[in-house]
Amino acid sequence: MADNRPIGVFDSGLGGLTVLKELEKVLPNENIVYFGDTGRVPYGNRSNDTIIHYARQDENFLLSKNVKYIVAACGTVSSVAACTAKDLPVRFSGVVENSVKDAVDSTKNKRIGVIATSATIKNGSHKRLIKNYLPDAQVVDVSCPLFVPLVEEGWVSADDSVVLDTVKRYLKPIVDAKVDTLILGCTHYPVLEKAIKTVVGNDVCLINMGCSTANAVKKELEGLDMLRQERSKPTCEFYVSDVTEGFSKVAQILLGQGIENDKVNLVDISKYEGSINHN
Hints:
This protein is α/β, with parallel strands linked by helices. Helix 3 (75-80) links the parallel strand 3 and strand 4 (91-93). The chain has eleven helices and ten strands. Strands 4-3-1-2-9-10 form a six-stranded parallel beta sheet, with helices on both faces. The chain has a four-stranded parallel beta sheet with strand order 6-5-7-8, sandwiched between helices. Helix 4 packs across helix 6 and helix 8 (161-176) crosses helix 9 (193-200). The radius of gyration is 18 Å and the shape is globular.
């Protein structure tokens, strides 16, 4: 039976727009509600309890929008707060496990690289999951803290010496380990794909968490007969928890299209306290 309710997507900030981009590609008929918790970004330097608390608030907000599915387009939430899924009245997907499954399926030499923010690498969720699926895998994980500011400044060209030198320096352990598969473990990183490809070579398979997650969501919705069937043009609503003057610029970089600030709605996320709303 068709389900015309929207898909809900949330992130600690705006990086999840790259996941939204992939969802729109594979599910072009679906309505989507996006929430970026710009008032509390980043989540990575918070305690696990705080991250779980924030995730529940974000999920409650999306449930208030009558979503049929929730995507945590945030590596930190996917790593730390996936436990909240058991309390949700709708289906849930994070970005970490989907990308790990694709990486394990892709690798031929069992050498898998992971690049992500310092907090995500410190958490070690990618490595643990890879080892669960492929115990004899060699995993090389590297934090790349300068990648996010580079992307948000729009410095992403593979022809830019600053970009290329930064990517080369961070990815040296990945290249030295001769991995054949590399997980882009932060939602900002696909924007640097050309520069990363220039450094690691075309033979290395790059795993985009947004692609992996979008394909998994599509497969699940198809299997449950929950795809939207309405013929009207699909909508995408944007919400943030704090005014972001640069939203349009960052959206242009991450989503591939500018979103004017007057199209972005402000939410008082503190109103969505407490246990999960099942209504």
